[in-house]
C-alpha cells in the first residue's frame, strides 16, 4: 500500500449533502443579512433639521450622492420642457396649495412690490408695472406636481434671466443659488442658479392671458418648468442670492432639495 | 436507484433572482407610498367603474398614507440597485448563452396553450421541453421586457425634461405614469402565479433555485444475461 493517504473521491450523496448545506447556509446568511440591513436603514435616526430635514440619515447621505450625480450628468440648459399650443391649456388651472397665501390673510396687491436683496445689503424694489415694461415671455407646458398629477397650463411673465439682465444683477447671477420667499415668509424655496436662468423659467403675472388670481399667487409667482410644482413659489415677496442653499419649505419636510425634472 | 446531480440554475441566475426579489418588493412598496398621493387610476369599461386602486382600508392596513416624501426617497435610491441587477442578469444570459433556454421559440406560443391545459388538468400530456416549457419561456421573457419597460417609463417620469426622448417614447409624461403603474400591477399578477406554480412544483424544484441542482434518480443498468455482447 502507498504511505500517503489517498483522499477518496466524494460519493454522489456526499456531494449532494455538501452542496445543499453550503447553498442553504449562504442563502440563509444572506437573507438574514438583508433583513438586518433593511431594519438598520428603516430604523436609522432622522437628520437634524437644517436646510434639509425629515429623512433617515443614511438615506439622505446616499441620495445626496445619487441625486447630485444624476443632476451633474443629466442637466443641460438646452433641454427644453415640451411646449403645447395655447388651445390645449387647461381653463381650470388646478389650485393645490395656499401655504403662504392663505385667503384669510389680508393682502393688498396694489401695495405689493418685489424686493430684491443684494448680497451687499442693498435693496432693489420693483413694482409690477415696471416688470410689465420688460419683454413678456409666455409658455404653455405640462405642469408637474410631486404628488403625481400633471396639467397643461399657460403662463405669461418675465423671463428670470431677462430680469437679471435688465436690473444689472450680473454679479448676483454668478452665485450658486436664488432664494425666494412669500411676503409673509411662510413659504420659501431655494433654486440652483442653472435652473433659475433656464430659458423657460419665468416670473409669471398672467395665467391664461389674464392677471394672476390670488389663489395662483397674485401678483407675481415663479414658474419653473424644470422643477416640480413645489418649487413654483406663489406670490414672490423677496428674492435673495447666495452661494449656500437658501431655506426651502419642502426640503425641510423630507423632499429632495433639487426636485428637478 | 442511482442518484445523479443534474445542474439546473447557474450561480449568477440564482443571485440575480434572489437579489431581485427584495429590490422589487421595495420598489413596489415605495411606489405605493408615491401612488397614494395621486391615486386616480381605476378600471373603467363603457363608463362603468369596476375597480379603483386602492380601497381606503388597503392603504390603512399597509400604512401607506401620507408618506410620499419617504416613498420617493426609497424609490429613487433602490431603483439603481434594481436597474444594475437587471442589467447584470440580461448581460449574463446573453453572454452565457442561457438566453436560448429562455427566449420563446416559434412553437412556444402554440405550445403554451397545451402547457396551460395540462397545468389545469384538462390535458394529460405536456409538450416535451428542455429546461423551461413554452409557458415559462414566454413568462420569463415577458417579465424581463416588463422590467425594461418599468425602467424606461420610470426614468421618463423621474426626469421628464432631461430624458425627454424617453418621455416622448412613452407617449408623454401622463401616459408614462399610467404604463409604469400597469406594469407594477403586472408584477403582482406574475408574483401570485409564480408562487402558486412553485408551490405546486414542490420542494425539489424550489430547492434547486437555491442549490442550483436537482437530484435525478435513475434505475441502474441491469446486466444482460442472454449471452449477447454489450455494445
Write structural notes for this entry.
Chain A is of the alpha+beta class and 261 residues long. Chain A folds into 2 domains: 1-43; 57-91 and 109-242, Sulfite Oxidase, Chain A, domain 2 (Alpha-Beta Complex), CATH 3.90.420.10. Chain A has 6 helices and 10 strands. Chain A has helices at residues 12-42, 57-74, 128-132, 160-166, 170-173, 193-196; strands at residues 114-117, 123-126, 137-144, 150-159, 177-181, 188-192, 202-207, 210-211, 221-223, 238-242. In chain A, the strands form 2 sheets. Chain A has a 5-stranded mixed β-sheet. The longest helix of chain A is centred in the N-terminal third of the chain and has 31 residues, at 12-42. The relative contact order of chain A is 0.15. With 231 residues, chain B is mostly helical. Chain B has one domain (2-218): Fumarate Reductase Cytochrome B subunit (Up-down Bundle). In chain B, the strands form 2 sheets. A two-stranded antiparallel sheet of chain B has the order 1-4. A two-stranded antiparallel ribbon of chain B has the order 2-3. In chain B, a hairpin with a 2-residue loop joins strand 2 (42-45) and strand 3. Chain B starts with a strand and ends in a 13-residue tail after the last strand. The model of chain B has no long low-confidence stretch (mean pLDDT 90). Classes of the chains: A alpha+beta (261), B mainly alpha (231). The interface between A and B is large, with 46 and 38 residues.
Keywords summarizing the entry:
heterodimer; A: 261 residues; alpha+beta; Sulfite Oxidase, Chain A, domain 2; five-stranded antiparallel beta sheet; 20% strand; B: mainly alpha; two-stranded antiparallel ribbon; two-stranded antiparallel sheet; globular
Q: How many domains is the backbone of chain B divided into?
A: 1
Beta-strand portion of chain B reads: 5-15%
Supply the CATH class of chain B.
Mainly Alpha
Compute the number of strand runs of chain A. Answer: 10
Assigned CATH superfamily of the largest domain in chain A:
Oxidoreductase, molybdopterin-binding domain
Mean pLDDT of chain B: 90
Give the CATH topology of chain B: Fumarate Reductase Cytochrome B subunit
Percent in helix of chain A: 25-40%
CATH level-3 fold name of the largest domain in chain A: Sulfite Oxidase, Chain A, domain 2
Could you name the CATH class of the largest domain in chain A? Alpha Beta
Strand content of chain A: 15-25%
CATH architecture of chain B: Up-down Bundle
Shape, principal axes of CA atoms of chain B? globular
CATH superfamily of chain B: Transmembrane di-heme cytochromes, Chain C
* Residue windows where pLDDT falls under 50 for at least 5 positions of chain A: none
Radius of gyration of chain B: 23 Å
The ordered H/E elements of chain B are EHEEHHHHHHHHE
Amino acid at each position: 500500500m502507498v504511505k500517503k493517504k489517498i483522499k477518496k473521491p466524494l460519493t454522489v450523496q456526499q456531494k449532494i449533502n455538501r452542496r445543499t448545506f453550503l447553498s442553504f447556509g449562504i442563502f440563509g446568511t444572506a437573507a438574514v443579512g438583508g433583513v438586518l440591513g433593511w431594519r438598520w436603514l428603516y430604523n436609522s435616526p432622522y437628520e437634524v433639521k437644517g436646510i434639509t430635514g425629515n429623512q433617515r440619515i443614511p438615506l439622505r447621505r446616499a441620495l445626496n450622492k445619487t441625486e447630485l450625480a444624476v443632476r451633474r450628468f443629466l442637466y443641460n440648459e438646452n433641454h427644453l420642457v415640451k411646449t403645447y399650443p395655447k388651445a390645449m391649456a387647461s381653463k381650470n388651472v388646478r389650485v393645490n396649495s395656499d401655504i403662504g397665501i392663505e385667503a384669510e390673510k389680508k393682502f393688498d396687491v396694489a401695495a405689493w412690490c418685489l424686493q430684491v436683496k443684494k448680497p451687499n445689503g442693498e435693496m432693489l424694489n420693483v413694482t409690477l408695472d415696471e416688470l410689465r415694461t420688460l419683454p413678456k415671455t409666455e409658455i404653455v407646458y405640462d405642469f408637474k406636481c410631486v404628488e403625481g398629477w400633471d396639467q397643461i397650463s399657460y403662463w405669461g411673465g418675465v423671463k428670470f434671466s431677462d430680469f437679471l439682465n435688465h436690473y444689472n444683477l450680473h454679479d448676483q447671477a454668478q452665485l450658486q443659488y436664488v432664494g425666494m420667499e412669500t411676503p409673509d415668509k411662510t413659504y420659501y424655496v431655494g433654486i440652483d442658479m442653472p435652473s433659475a436662468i433656464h430659458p423657460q423659467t419665468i416670473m409669471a403675472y398672467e395665467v391664461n392671458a389674464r392677471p394672476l388670481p390670488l389663489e395662483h399667487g397674485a401678483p407675481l409667482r415663479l414658474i419653473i418648468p424644470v422643477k416640480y410644482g413645489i418649487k413654483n413659489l406663489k406670490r414672490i415677496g423677496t428674492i435673495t442670492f447666495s452661494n449656500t442653499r437658501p431655506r426651502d419649505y419642502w426640503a425641510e419636510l423630507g423632499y429632495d432639495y433639487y426636485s428637478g425634472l | 436507484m442511482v442518484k445523479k446531480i443534474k445542474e439546473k440554475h447557474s450561480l449568477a441566475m440564482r443571485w440575480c433572482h434572489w437579489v431581485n426579489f427584495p429590490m422589487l418588493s421595495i420598489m413596489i412598496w415605495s411606489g405605493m407610498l408615491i401612488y397614494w398621493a395621486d391615486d386616480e387610476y381605476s378600471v373603467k369599461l363603457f363608463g362603468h367603474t369596476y375597480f379603483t386602486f386602492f380601497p381606503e382600508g388597503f392603504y390603512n392596513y399597509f400604512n401607506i398614507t401620507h408618506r410620499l416624501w419617504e416613498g420617493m426617497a426609497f424609490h429613487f435610491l433602490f431603483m439603481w440597485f434594481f436597474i444594475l441587477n437587471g442589467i447584470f442578469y440580461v448581460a449574463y444570459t446573453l453572454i452565457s448563452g442561457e438566453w436560448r433556454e429562455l427566449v420563446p421559440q416559434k412553437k412556444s406560443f402554440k405550445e403554451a396553450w397545451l402547457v396551460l391545459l395540462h397545468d389545469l388538468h384538462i390535458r394529460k400530456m405536456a409538450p416535451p421541453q428542455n429546461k423551461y416549457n413554452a409557458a415559462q419561456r414566454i413568462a420569463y421573457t415577458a417579465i424581463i421586457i416588463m422590467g425594461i419597460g418599468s425602467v424606461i417609463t420610470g426614468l421618463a417620469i423621474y426626469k421628464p425634461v432631461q430624458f425627454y426622448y424617453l418621455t416622448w417614447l412613452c407617449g408623454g409624461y401622463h401616459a408614462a405614469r399610467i404604463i409604469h403603474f400597469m406594469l407594477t400591477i403586472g408584477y403582482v399578477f406574475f408574483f401570485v402565479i409564480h408562487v402558486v406554480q412553485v408551490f405546486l412544483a414542490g420542494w425539489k424544484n424550489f430547492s434547486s433555485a437555491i442549490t442550483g441542482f436537482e437530484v435525478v434518480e435513475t434505475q441502474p443498468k441491469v446486466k444482460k444475461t442472454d449471452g449477447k455482447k454489450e455494445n
